[in-house]
Amino acid sequence: MGRCKSHSADDGGEGSQGRGETLNTHHLSPYMKPLGSDYSNGVNFAIAGATATPGDTPFSLDVQIDQFIFYRDRCNDSITRDEPAPLNMLDFERALYTMDIGQNDITSILYLPYDEVLAKLPHFVAEIRKAIEILHKNGARKFWIHGTGALGCLPAKLAMPRASDGDLDEHGCIAKFNNAAKKFNTLLSEACDDLRLLLKKSSIIFVDMFAIKYDLVANHTKHGIEKPLMTCCGHGGPPYNYDPKRSCMGDSKDLCKLGDKFISWDGVHFTDAANSIVASMAISGEYSVPRMKLTSLVKPAKSKAS
């Protein structure tokens, strides 16, 4: 983030990429690719498909946190041996720690009855809260926490068979799925409120990603979007151009000519154009609690490891 050291733990989505480009800094080097990586600007612990809860994925949030602690200890060991290290302990304290995780957990249970979905959300949030507390114990002081997006507006969900269109809202999104996402965000925002009181001398910012991503759909013409609920790269044509049995990478995919007119790239992930809009809105401070621009948490000075 900017020129500050930052550490990203998330579900492997587009969040950290969009934030980095908007702040005019190079992408963070992934922790899982040590060869040729430059960690002086930060480390990205994100893994595609990661979840906040352990069990179903090999690199859930708790594993990412363990990887961070191992990396931090390795840097500290190098310093104590008077060896070069990309980051020193002050760097870790000054770093901005970003989290964007939980969407995969929620989408994996949306087939359940709605009351059962709601019952599981506190457990997902508890894992994120625990991760923040562990990071704080290990020196982290600045946190930028993303809520989840408008899951009911994803073409991958909209293309699922449904008995009727009665559960679609005025913009064509699945209301029940979006309500679950909003409930998750409410719980996560409340957890951040609690941690703000508990973890002294810390900045914990919650960003309402649902409001941002739903705005892209509800006010798509304002953002230059023509096909808010249709994938750019997929199969089947309108209304969603999405077929779960046929990958976007397949030979017979239908690829749009103008990706900047679409929100969704493959039914789940956003196009670069949509990511750019989302990132600009996220760092603006207008959707954060407390209201704060991301740039205010980024220090321009770059310390040297010693």
TrEMBL record:
Pfam families per the UniProt record, alphabetical: Lipase_GDSL
Region (Disordered): 1-27
GO molecular function: hydrolase activity, acting on ester bonds
InterPro entries: GDSL, SGNH_hydro_sf
Domain of life: Eukaryota
Keyword list, A-Z: Glycoprotein
Entry's family note: Belongs to the 'GDSL' lipolytic enzyme family.
Protein name as catalogued: GDSL esterase/lipase
Organismal lineage: Eukaryota, Viridiplantae, Streptophyta, Embryophyta, Tracheophyta
